[in-house]
Structure formats: structure tokens, C-alpha cells
């Protein structure tokens, strides 16, 4: 057993919420801004004060390391992110990062020597709102390289990614530089659920089994524009009729028959867009999500065939292309069991659940067994200044992280 200091953790969360703090009690600490740098500096200073070493890599991922008995063993990695949405909450990301740091301090307070080093990480740009995509830091860490096209990226506020990244790295001159990516034993991340399930179930710990896959499609149906008043049914080649008929069939079929599927049409447009003309083009986007990659393929096929059938019925042609494809991720079963055991040892109830949103753990899971631990947030609200987590749930999440970390660092190397 290891005891964490709940009061210290809550005070830390308050101190970090003040960096980029908004008048409504939220946080605006977008990636690679001066606020982001201030939060990183504060964490590094706290680390140096405790005698831990501080590293960063070329993506400005920030690492804090507590030595192990055997420094040749790959470290246990724990953490999350410090960046926020423009009108974000104080717990999204900060909770996981500061809980991880609390675990490191608690190990130090108790004088517990671990076989492996334990490393806390704050990943760069999880949110992806100032520079897209999200999870840049963990994605590059897992890939072992920074995609060349990122260097040209411009922020929503006009700032250049390359310059902001350089300034962020240079804002911590005392931190040693590490190459991108290094072997790790396992990764654990605490995060707020950003959904209502735990709160509704009165359960304080969610053991995330996986993150559903996401696929985006662009659909374009082409017919023939013609006069609305003079063109009889037999002469019409109406792409909007084809699209709406197909979509209504898909709405009836996909989600009602599969509770794990998500099917969303978020954007629809017609050309030329005239009140008294049959359109010659009808376009829409499709967002499909599912935890099973095979089902995602099936869904894509049934969407394509449903739309093609209706397009042919209207004597229209159809083009469908993918614009985004994020495969689902399944977290390591043995690591999920470690988290369940850690919760049970702390007398906390846990439940298995799927995450609807991406997290850094999804990318880290590509290179090392990873687990994601959810805690409830009030009304499931997140990406909102009113985001709130009850102190008892903050403490519960950190205790489970501490216990699971201890179980994993004492495990003999395999
Ligand atoms: Zn987050």
C-alpha cells in the first residue's frame, strides 16, 4: 500500500488551474502558448525541488524521472497532458498529470524503492485545438518521428508550429534533451470520463477496455440539374432524393440494430442550391464509430451500398472517399486486471467501459501495454469551464494510479 496526499494534490490542481485561469473558473492553456510553458515550468520546478530529473524530447513532451534500483530496466510511465481547450476545464489532462506527479512524490515521501524507474509524462498538444491533430506528442512518441508536414502548420491564431515548439523547448533550458521515443514497461493514464456513465452508476473508477474506431467519409452524388416546375418524375435525376432516401434507411438500420455503433451525418450540401432547380450534386459527410474494426468495415460497406442503390435508382452517379481513419484500440487485458485489482485493494468499486473520445493512451498503446483509468466528472461535462470533479473522486483516481503503479514496478521483468 502507498498513501497519497489528497490535500497536496487538490492544492496542486488549484495552482495549475490559475495558469491560464478564466473568469468563469475554467482554463485557457492551449498547447505551446506562454500559459502552457508556465505550467510546464512549474511542474519542472516542483520536480527539481524533490530531486527528480527532468527531460524533454523534440516534441516538447516533458518527462520527470524517479530513479529505480535497476536503471537498465525500461521505466514505468504515468501521466497525461497539461494543455487545454480555449474555454476548457481545470481537470481535463491536468488531473492525470498531477495525479502522476503525486504518485512520484508519495513514493519519495514513503522512501519506497522501486525496481524500475518511474517516469511522469506531460504529453504535448493533446487537445489539437490550436494545432491539429490532437495527441501530437504521444503520436510522435509512438511513431518515433515527427511527421514532416507538421513543421509547416499554422495555429488558429497565426503562430507557426515550428517556432512555438522551439520556444517551448527553450523555455526549459535546464531540462535534458532525449531523442523521441524510448522503451517503456507500461503506461497508465488517469483522465476524467467526459461522459455520464460513472456518475450515473455511482462508481468512482472506470477501467477503459478500449477506444472505438472512427472513420469519416465524404459522399458526393451527381445527377442533373433541371427546372423544378417542368421536369416530371420520369425525367428527374435527383441526387438529393437519392441521398435522403438512402440516409433515412441507414438511420433506421445502423444504430437501432447495433448499440455499439455511432452513425452521424454532420454536414450536408446541395448544388446549385436554387429554390426552383433540381440539384445536380448532393454531398454529405459521414462519421461512423465502432469498437470492432471488422464491424467498421461492414458499416462502411453497407453505407456505400445503400447510397449506391438509391443513386442508381435515380440514375445518378456516386463517389465516396475516406477522409479520416482511426482504428479502434483495445487496451491490454492484463493491465486492465491490474487496475481492477488496484481499485479493489483500495476498497473502490470499478466498472469496465469504452471511451468514445481519443486519449494519449491510445497512441502509447501502440508501443507498450497501456491502461486508461476514468474518474467521474459532474454531469459528464467537459471541454467546458464548469467542468468539475469531486475531491473524493480525485483522490480515488490517484490512489488507484498509485496502487497500480506499485503493482507494475514490482513485477519482475518479462
Ligand atoms: Zn484530455
Summarize the structure.
Pfam families: M20_dimer, Peptidase_M20. The chain has 414 residues and is of the alpha/beta class.
How does this model look, in words?
GO terms for molecular function: hydrolase activity. Residues 210-312 form the Peptidase M20 dimerisation domain. Belongs to the peptidase M20 family. Keywords: Hydrolase, Plasmid. It holds the Pfam family Peptidase_M20. This protein folds into two domains: 6-211 and 328-409, Aminopeptidase, CATH 3.40.630; 213-326, Alpha-Beta Plaits (2-Layer Sandwich). The chain is built from eleven helices and 17 strands. Strands 1, 2, 3, 4, 5, 6, 7, 15, 16 and 17 form a ten-stranded mixed β-sheet that branches. Helix 1 (6-17) packs antiparallel against helix 3 (94-109), helix 3 (94-109) packs across helix 11 and helix 7 runs antiparallel to helix 8 (293-313). It is elongated. The longest helix has 21 residues, at 293-313. It is of the alpha/beta class. Helix 3 (94-109) links the parallel strand 3 (76-81) and strand 4. Helices cover 35% and strands 22% of the residues. The structure holds zinc ion (ZN). Zinc ion (ZN) binds at residues 81, 92-93, 126, 191.
Please supply descriptive tags for the structure shown above:
Alpha-Beta Plaits; alpha/beta; 414 residues; Zn-dependent hydrolase; binds zinc ion; 5-stranded antiparallel sheet; Amidase_Cbmase; Aminopeptidase; plasmid; 17 strands; 10-stranded mixed sheet; Peptidase_M20_dimer
Task: Note the topology.
Elements: H1 6-17, H2 34-49, E1 53-56, E2 62-66, E3 76-81, H3 94-109, E4 118-123, H4 136-143, H5 161-170, E5 176-177, E6 186-192, H6 197-201, E7 205-211, E8 213-222, E9 226-227, H7 239-257, E10 262-264, E11 268-271, E12 277-278, E13 281-290, H8 293-313, E14 317-326, E15 329-330, H9 333-345, E16 350-355, H10 360-364, E17 370-375, H11 391-409
Parallel strand pairs: 1-5, 3-4, 3-6, 6-17, 7-16
Antiparallel strand pairs: 1-2, 2-4, 7-15, 7-17, 8-13, 8-14, 9-12, 10-13, 11-13
Helix pairs in contact: 1-3, 3-11, 7-8, 9-11
The protein binds zinc ion (ZN).
Amino acid at each position: 500500500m502507498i498513501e497519497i496526499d489528497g490535500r497536496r494534490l487538490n492544492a496542486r490542481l488549484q495552482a495549475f488551474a490559475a495558469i491560464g485561469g478564466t473568469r468563469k473558473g475554467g482554463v485557457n492553456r492551449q498547447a505551446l502558448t506562454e500559459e502552457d510553458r508556465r505550467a510546464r515550468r512549474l511542474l519542472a520546478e516542483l520536480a527539481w525541488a524533490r530531486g527528480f530529473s527532468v527531460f524533454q524530447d523534440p516534441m516538447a513532451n516533458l518527462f520527470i524521472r524517479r530513479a529505480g534500483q535497476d536503471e537498465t530496466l525500461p521505466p514505468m510511465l504515468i501521466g497525461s497532458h497539461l494543455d487545454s481547450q480555449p474555454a476548457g476545464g481545470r481537470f481535463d489532462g491536468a488531473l492525470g498529470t498531477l495525479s502522476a506527479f503525486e504518485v512520484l512524490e508519495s513514493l519519495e515521501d514513503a522512501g519506497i524503492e522501486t525496481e524500475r524507474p518511474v517516469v511522469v509524462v506531460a504529453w504535448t498538444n493533446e487537445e489539437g485545438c490550436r494545432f491539429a491533430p490532437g495527441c501530437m506528442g504521444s503520436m510522435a512518441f509512438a511513431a518515433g518521428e515527427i511527421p514532416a508536414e507538421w513543421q509547416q502548420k499554422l495555429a488558429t491564431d497565426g503562430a507557426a508550429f515550428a517556432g512555438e515548439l522551439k520556444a517551448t523547448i527553450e523555455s526549459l533550458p535546464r531540462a535534458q534533451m532525449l531523442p523521441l521515443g524510448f522503451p517503456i514497461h507500461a503506461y497508465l493514464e488517469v483522465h476524467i470520463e467526459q461522459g455520464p456513465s460513472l456518475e450515473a452508476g455511482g462508481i468512482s473508477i472506470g477501467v477503459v477496455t478500449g477506444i472505438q474506431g472512427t472513420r469519416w467519409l465524404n459522399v458526393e452524388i451527381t445527377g442533373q440539374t433541371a427546372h423544378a416546375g417542368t421536369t416530371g418524375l420520369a425525367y428527374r435525376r435527383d441526387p438529393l432524393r437519392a441521398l435522403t432516401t438512402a440516409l433515412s434507411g441507414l438511420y433506421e438500420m445502423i444504430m437501432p440494430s447495433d448499440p455499439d455503433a455511432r452513425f452521424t451525418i454532420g454536414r450536408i450540401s446541395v448544388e446549385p442550391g436554387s429554390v426552383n432547380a433540381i440539384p445536380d450534386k448532393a454531398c454529405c459527410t459521414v462519421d461512423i464509430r465502432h469498437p470492432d474494426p471488422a464491424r467498421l468495415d461492414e458499416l462502411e460497406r453497407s453505407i456505400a451500398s445503400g447510397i449506391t442503390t438509391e443513386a442508381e435508382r435515380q440514375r445518378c452517379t456516386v463517389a465516396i472517399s475516406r477522409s479520416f481513419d482511426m482504428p479502434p484500440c483495445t487496451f491490454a487485458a492484463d493491465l486492465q486486471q491490474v487496475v481492477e485489482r488496484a481499485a479493489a485493494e483500495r476498497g473502490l468499486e470499478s466498472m469496465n467501459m469504452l471511451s468514445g473520445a481519443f486519449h494519449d493512451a491510445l497512441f502509447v498503446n501502440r508501443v507498450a501495454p497501456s491502461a486508461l483509468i476514468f474518474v467521474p466528472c459532474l454531469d459528464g461535462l467537459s471541454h467546458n469551464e464548469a467542468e468539475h470533479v469531486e475531491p473524493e473522486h480525485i483522490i480515488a483516481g490517484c490512489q488507484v494510479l498509485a496502487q497500480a503503479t506499485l503493482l507494475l514496478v514490482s513485477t519482475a521483468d518479462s
